[in-house]
């Protein structure tokens, strides 16, 4: 769809939903704008980010209309000044940032022989994004790649538990892991119960990291935490089917997956280790 039509429809929706004198609170309005409107505008940004500067005026109008519903402003109040006060990134830069993050994530994926369009093969969204990444200093960074195999695993992966959902009982150390994106920032967290002692940890990863990488990073952290254990039964509950699948495979194509599998193997040498879905977590 044409960006002009999207921005026009978005502006009409904003104008009918919020106002300076009625509607949701400014905090809720800002959350709705950054969570719903921004998500709609950045959809497919990897393909069309290079055209965002051509629509700066239209994007600024949408941004100003949203900020007008957050606070009382005058007609002469600068749009960029309000964006600084309300901590809102210009939309054209936000679209470009999202596209660069997506381009950085897929750098390590296997691609076809396509190398651009035109007689000189100098055009195409992948080539454009590579140029942006090179300007920002990401040209020489290696993608998340690893080529290896692990045939004999000591740990167990129970993929059926994700759909089964039958609670398990017994004496074991339950570990709960989670990785997600919060306001566009990837983070991880875990909780380990050992008797009546609770251990927990959390942290963040670089902005280019995916939810898949945060899930595996959390499992790796838990495995390293429990490495001193011996002759224990350890159950790691994972809420992501995508994280369980590579751990149950013999082919390894990611450095993050390899580090996670290696950490699980280390504690499985002296413990009974099982990874399963959180649908079967201990009540």
Keywords:
283 residues, alpha/beta, Nucleotidyltransferase, domain 5, 2 domains, 6-stranded mixed β-sheet, two-stranded antiparallel sheet, 11 helices, 8 strands
Description:
The chain is an alpha/beta fold and 283 residues long. It folds into two domains: 3-135, no CATH class; 148-280, Nucleotidyltransferase, domain 5 (2-Layer Sandwich), CATH 3.30.420. Helices cover 43% and strands 17% of the residues. The protein contains eleven helices and eight strands. The protein has helices at 3-17, 26-41, 45-48, 56-68, 79-85, 91-105, 125-135, 161-164, 211-225, 241-247, 255-268; strands spanning 148-149, 156-158, 173-182, 185-194, 197-204, 233-238, 251-252, 272-277. The strands form two sheets. The chain has a six-stranded mixed β-sheet. A hairpin with a 2-residue loop joins strand 3 (173-182) and strand 4 (185-194). Helix 6 crosses helix 7. The radius of gyration is 24 Å and the shape is elongated. It starts with a helix and ends in a 6-residue tail after the last strand.
Task: Give a concise summary.
With 283 residues, the protein is of the alpha/beta class.
């Amino acid at each position: 769809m044409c960006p002009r039509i999207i921005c026009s429809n978005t502006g009409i929706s904003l104008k009918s939903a919020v106002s300076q004198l009625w509607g949701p609170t400014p905090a809720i309005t800002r959350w709705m704008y950054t969570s719903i409107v921004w998500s709609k505008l950045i959809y497919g940004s990897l393909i069309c980010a290079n055209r965002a500067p051509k629509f700066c005026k239209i994007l600024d109008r949408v941004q100003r209309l949203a900020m007008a519903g957050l606070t009382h402003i005058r007609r002469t109040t600068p749009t960029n000044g309000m964006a600084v006060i309300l901590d809102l990134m210009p939309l054209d830069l936000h679209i470009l940032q999202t596209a660069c993050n997506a381009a950085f994530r897929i750098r390590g994926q296997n691609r076809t022989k396509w190398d651009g369009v035109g007689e000189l093969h100098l055009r195409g969204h992948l080539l454009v994004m590579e140029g942006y990444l090179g300007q920002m200093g990401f040209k020489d960074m290696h993608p998340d790649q690893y080529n290896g195999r692990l045939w004999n695993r000591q740990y167990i992966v129970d993929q059926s538990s994700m759909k089964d959902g039958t609670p398990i009982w017994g004496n074991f150390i339950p570990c709960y892991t989670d990785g997600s994106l919060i306001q566009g920032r990837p983070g991880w967290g875990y909780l380990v119960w050992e008797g009546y002692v609770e251990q927990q940890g959390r942290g963040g990863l670089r902005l280019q990291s995916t939810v898949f990488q945060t899930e595996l990073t959390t499992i790796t952290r838990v495995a390293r935490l429990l490495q001193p254990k011996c002759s224990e039964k350890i159950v790691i509950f994972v809420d992501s089917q995508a994280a369980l699948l590579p751990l149950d495979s013999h082919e390894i194509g990611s450095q993050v997956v390899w580090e996670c599998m290696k950490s699980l193997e280390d504690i499985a040498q002296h413990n009974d280790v099982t990874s399963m879905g959180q649908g079967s977590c201990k009540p």
